[in-house]
């Protein structure tokens, strides 16, 4: 799609079966869509993957604009992702960083190549599940076996891949009856497996909540699921809302995007350059216009899907020089402020968390997790990579390397500092 924009201009119209669509990788056009006309383009299309894998588009990220989305967003911003609540988990994040360093040190002492996807995926998962569920899935405090933990990690990656699939049935409805590649069948399988896990989690927390109430023991910091269970439901739908928030908005989104970004990067300028060259996903989650409008002088009908090409944006030669070179210094602030803007997306040149009404509410947490991991890994180890690293990417909702990144770590500090 970036090639189409290079050839035909900053805004390209596509007719995808029965659906009108536009795509762009131009920052000025993106600003027009996500800022000036945010109220027009802030909805989401109801794709088959979102219906199956996000509880009927019932979460914050994939729900169409409307009262349900506003309620879910309000729950996130007022009860889950407040500054006070995120700060209350600072000690747990620091502890998980220590576990990460100890794990890498143990492998480095044996002279083993380190699978960064594995160790960073576990780091991201543990940070999120400790906040969300009050449990560790990997490491010394794990409450599940390694097989079960790896299985859930595998399902999470599979979910993201399916959400990123361009499924013909979304654009040619009759195709759903054929489903020659088994995409919908696979979605239903993942849906059942994920729902089974979430039902178990919510029932465990309901049982724990009742026990606490019976024993008059309500002290201690509540995890996110406990907070959700304490909120009044909406027409008896609180159970589905909890599971939707657990899966997509908390575990899946925070784990997969943070792990993918960590794997590519190894500092704020480094992180921003990593977002430019290897964004967590090739496109932002598609937007959809709620009414007719005009963009760049062109008429855009209602229900038009918008594909913001973040991969093409980072390689737009009108914005960046030497697009294939990794040059963090290009992001150094020219005003001497000493800060590199990462998460706000104010310049619309790099959008790791989108912008406008549909910006990821967990952006500050995501940046914090990535920077903590990178800073400690750089400080504690010297890194060398094997020759001929495979840099092929897999396209889906996120964009991990096709093959895991392996590297050798050499401890830089005294041995007792890694304990």
Structure write-up:
- This protein has 419 residues and is α+β, with helices and mostly antiparallel strands.
- It has one domain (2-418): Orthogonal Bundle (Cytochrome p450).
- 47% of the residues lie in helices and 8% in strands.
- The chain is built from 14 helices and 9 strands.
- It has helices at residues 2-8, 27-36, 48-53, 67-80, 83-87, 90-109, 116-132, 146-163, 183-214, 224-230, 238-264, 268-277, 310-313, 363-380, and strands at residues 12-16, 19-24, 114-115, 287-288, 293-295, 298-300, 305-308, 381-384, 406-411.
- It has a 4-stranded mixed β-sheet. A 3-stranded antiparallel β-sheet has the order 3-9-8. The chain has a two-stranded antiparallel ribbon with strand order 5-6.
- The longest helix is centred in the middle third of the chain and has 32 residues, at 183-214.
- It is globular, with a radius of gyration of 22 Å.
- The mean pLDDT is 82.
Amino- and carboxy-terminal Cα gap:
49 Å
How would a textbook summarize the main sheet?
4 strands, mixed
DSSP helix fraction: 40-55%
> How many helical stretches?
14
**Mind telling me the CATH superfamily name?**
Cytochrome P450
CATH architecture: Orthogonal Bundle
**Helix/sheet category:** alpha+beta
Oligomer: single chain
Q: What is the total domain count?
A: 1
If strands are numbered along the chain, what order do they take across the biggest sheet?
1-2-7-4
Relative strand content: 5-15%
SSE arrangement, N to C: HEEHHHHHEHHHHHHEEEEHHEE
Q: What is the CA-atom radius of gyration, in angstroms?
A: 22 Å
Please, what is the average pLDDT? 82
CATH class: Mainly Alpha
The CATH topology:
Cytochrome p450
Q: Quick one: how many beta strands?
A: 9
């Amino acid at each position: 799609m970036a090639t189409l924009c290079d050839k035909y201009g900053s805004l390209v119209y596509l007719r995808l079966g029965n659906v009108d669509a536009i795509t762009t990788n131009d920052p000025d056009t993106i600003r027009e869509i996500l800022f000036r006309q945010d109220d027009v383009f802030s909805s989401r299309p109801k794709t088959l993957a979102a219906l199956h894998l996000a509880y009927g588009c019932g979460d914050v990220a994939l729900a169409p604009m409307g009262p349900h989305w506003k309620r879910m967003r309000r729950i996130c911003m007022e009860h889950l992702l407040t500054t006070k609540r995120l700060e209350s988990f600072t000690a747990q994040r620091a502890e998980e960083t220590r576990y990460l360093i100890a794990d890498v040190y143990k492998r480095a002492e044996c002279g083993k190549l380190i699978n960064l996807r594995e160790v960073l995926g576990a780091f991201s998962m543990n940070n999120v599940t400790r906040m969300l569920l009050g449990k560790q899935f990997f490491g010394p405090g794990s409450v599940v076996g390694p097989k079960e933990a790896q299985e859930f990690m595998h399902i999470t990656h599979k979910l993201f891949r399916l959400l990123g699939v361009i499924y013909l049935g979304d654009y040619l409805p009759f195709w759903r009856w054929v489903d020659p590649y088994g995409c919908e069948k696979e979605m239903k399988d993942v849906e059942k497996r994920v729902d089974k896990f979430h039902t178990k989690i919510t029932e465990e927390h309901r049982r724990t909540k009742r026990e606490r109430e019976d024993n008059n023991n309500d002290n201690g910091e509540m995890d996110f699921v406990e907070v959700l269970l304490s909120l009044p439901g909406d027409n008896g739908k609180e159970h589905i809302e909890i599971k939707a928030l657990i899966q997509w908005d908390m575990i899946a989104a925070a784990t997969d995007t943070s792990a993918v970004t960590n794997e590519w990067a190894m500092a704020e300028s480094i992180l921003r350059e990593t977002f430019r060259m290897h964004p967590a996903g090739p496109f932002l989650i598609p937007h959809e216009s709620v009414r007719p409008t005009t963009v760049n002088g062109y008429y855009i009908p209602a229900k038009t899907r918008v594909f913001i090409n973040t991969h093409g944006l980072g390689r737009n030669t009108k914005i960046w020089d030497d697009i294939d070179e990794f040059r963090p210094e290009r992001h150094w602030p020219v005003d001497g402020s000493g800060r590199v803007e990462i998460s706000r997306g104010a310049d619309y040149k790099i959008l790791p968390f989108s912008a406008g009404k549909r910006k990821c509410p967990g952006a500050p947490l995501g940046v914090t997790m990535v920077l903590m991991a990178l800073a400690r890994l750089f400080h504690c180890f010297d890194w060398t990579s094997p020759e001929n690293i495979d840099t092929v990417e897999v396209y889906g909702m996120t964009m991990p390397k096709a093959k895991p990144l392996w590297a050798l770590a050499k401890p830089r500090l005294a041995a007792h500092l890694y304990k």
